[in-house]
């Protein structure tokens, strides 16, 4: 057991921290208020290598390990979760899946520009009637010989209107149920492919969340990922990795809220002394710090198991389940510590509280994580 970061890890963390402070913090409140997608910031993240961190250099990525990715996600999420969710989807759900399961042609055509940040990707699994029950895919991909005809609707898609490449799950053979689902690469602008209005959300308001509509969209067979019927297994595999990304996001939201609370507690005075000297505030900060550190260790455990090529299903689910709860608890307390100031946008913590909630919902709700963990420990 070695809890020390390498020099590379520390350099990645510092680079992400400086980028978040200098490029994401200015204007973050305004972007949240206006629901403005951080296009310029995402472009800079691509140029700095944050959008394809774990992809091998020959495919345009940084060739880094998952621990580096976790550290960068935490720092960026401290400031702007709308940026970090785009980063998470591109890294975990799109790039990682393409590199691990895609053909060489798919990697050359799609993975290279995605990993290098030239374009961004989206992952389309959820539907109006297929959220936690991901097996109930109503989007269909009819096998037409050399291509599929794609029809249906997808909901809650991150990078919905700004992505250039979409990985779409669709049912080809209903009789086979989840074993009849395929994962298809769909390009933006194809005939019959429409994007709905941007969702008006509680948190991560800058994030580009849309519904997608497919009407007889022609998808060539060479755009299928893996063998016929591999789609559901593919989705579950990439979501396992995606949970590490969202756990890192939750960890960043929590640690960002704690840092703001410590700063405020040292500056704000009541009864003639800084509130940091009041035992009740100290106890709140103590609890925050302890829970955040526990969450961090769970996230790092999942990341290290993934890097070692070991099974990390249980560890990723535990990390996401716990870190998302810590994010909620910590941000609520951060608002309380700030008092009336915590309720106004200028002090950031109310935004972090709103952003925290989604980490308990997307890429597998907390209820689903409990099912995954129970299934793993009862094997």
Concise account of the structure shown:
The chain is an alpha+beta fold and about 375 residues long.
Task: Tell me what the structure shows.
- The protein is α+β, with helices and mostly antiparallel strands and 379 residues long.
- It has eleven helices and nine strands.
- Strands 2-3-7-6 form a four-stranded antiparallel beta sheet, with helices on one face. It has a three-stranded mixed beta sheet with strand order 1-4-5. A two-stranded antiparallel ribbon has the order 8-9.
- A hairpin with a 2-residue loop joins strand 8 and strand 9.
Blueprint (SSEs and pairs):
Elements: H1 7-24, H2 28-34, H3 39-47, H4 66-79, H5 81-101, H6 104-115, E1 121-124, E2 140-143, E3 147-158, E4 165-171, E5 181-187, E6 193-195, E7 209-220, H7 231-267, E8 269-270, E9 273-274, H8 279-307, H9 313-338, H10 349-358, H11 366-377
Parallel strand pairs: 1-4
Antiparallel strand pairs: 2-3, 3-7, 4-5, 6-7, 8-9
Helix pairs in contact: 1-4, 4-5, 4-7, 5-6, 5-7, 7-8, 7-9, 7-10, 8-9, 9-10, 9-11
